[in-house]
Amino acid sequence: MSVQHCGVMKLKPISEVAKFQRNLIPANIPETYKLKSMFESVASEESIRNGIVAFRDFLLILCDRLISDGDVYAKPPKNPSGIGDYPFLYCITNLLVDIGYHGKLSENGDSLSVAELPLCIASVDEKGKKISPKISASALFSCVELLTLCGFCFSGVDLEVRKLNISETQPLKVSFPSNPLLTTGLKAMSIAEMELRTTRRYWNDNNFLRCDYRLLKAEDSDMRDVLVDFLYPLPKEIQEFALQLHERYTNMGLTCVNTRLGLVSFAYAYIGKSRKLLSEREIYSKRVWEFSYSLKDGYCLFARPKKTERYADVIKTFDVSLQKKIAQGYGCYRKLGRNRCQFDCQGIRIPLNEQILAIGGDIEAWFDQEIPKH
After folding, report:
1. What are the residue boundaries of the structural domains of the chain, listed by start?
2. Which of 12, 70, 299, 339 could pair with 352 in a Cys bridge, judged by C-beta atoms 3.0 to 4.6 Å apart?
3. How does pLDDT run across 138-156, given as a tens digit for each residue?
4. Residue 67: phi, psi to the nearest 5?
């Protein structure tokens, strides 16, 4: 749990963070989809799509390696900002993006020639102040060592020396021999990360390490398809129950937004006939309920009822366990002092496990009461 004692954040083990991250990697990527025109100069659409699948497969290998011995590489920070805040995840993301974005694809697309890695070298700002590299020398070595174990090849780099000097190895040739198309996927995904991402990257909001190929798509993805990917690690019966809720309430007029405001979430809000074009954040603030996946709580359904006093007689017909949860309510319980917020304001938490199936009918009857009648 995200609990602070004497000013120290209790981190989850890197293995658990990697398992969390692995669940967010899409299990099924379509064979065909139209790409944004900005990628025409990178490679053919088929090569990019196949390269993205290769990149996804590499990410699964990376997560498995972090699960097995990630503690060798990912050291905890002194003052973590979250229960899974490992700087190494930023470093390895930054290095891969630097390689992909600044590297030049070979003619057949099987390697990248990298003449510069801006995040690995010190710089000077407009006022003449020296700025340290975002990836330190020690972190760079650890990243290259781990990426090599995962299948990357860095020509001219001798890991036995235990020290890397990027300036001496440039231009650096980077390849992935077991699947040469990966470098094409890395190039495309890096461009998307640098030029299409609109929010700041957090440890739990990392489109790149999720292989979020949808950023490259010319057309918006169907929200149901995105939800199917989200639910994939769960048992089939729970997937079907969640999809049933999604279809029921979108058909009843609720708007669904896939938000990553500090967590992975599908939020359902009733916005009525609002004339104002609402932002994702504004829609999220009006949510009635949401599916959520976080390192702290796992897969959950969170409800934010506002009218329970109006249908108390209906609540009395629900399963006793659900009645108790509704009676407890939700809200911010942060105490004075050093206790961190436990995010109880997110709503009434119901884990997405087998037990939710027994109260599925009650949940529908409950949510039905919260939606305005037309």
Report:
1. 4-216, 223-370
2. 299
3. 899 899 999 999 999 998 7
4. -70, -40
User: Which residues, at least 6 apart from 49, have a Cβ–Cβ distance to it below 8 Å?
Assistant: 29, 31, 32, 33, 35
* Helix 360-370 × helix 320-328 angle, to 10°: 40
Q: Residue 267: beta bridge partners?
A: 257, 290
Residue 105: beta bridge partners?
112
Token pair listed for 6: 């004497």
- Is the distance from CB of 246 to CB of 266 less than 8 angstroms? yes
Q: Does the N-terminal peptide bond of residue 171 adopt cis geometry, omega within 30 degrees of 0?
A: yes
Q: In this structure, are residues 183 and 172 in contact, taking their beta carbons and an 8 Å threshold?
A: no
Q: Nearest Cα to 264, choosing from 292, 298, 234, 225? A: 292
Encode pLDDT of 99-111 as tens digits. Answer: 999 999 999 999 9
Q: Band of the pLDDT at 5, cuts 50, 70, 90?
A: very low
Q: How far apart are CA 353 and CA 231, in angstroms?
A: 12
Q: How far apart are CA 164 and CA 141, in angstroms?
A: 6
Counting DSSP H helices and E strands in the chain, the numbers are: 13, 13
Do the Cβ atoms of 210 and 224 come closer than 8 Å?
A: no
| Residue given tokens 């490679």 in the structure block | 43
Residues 233-259: tens digit of each pLDDT: 999 999 999 999 999 999 999 999 987
The letter for the amino acid at 349 is R
Look up residue 122 and give its amino acid. Answer: A
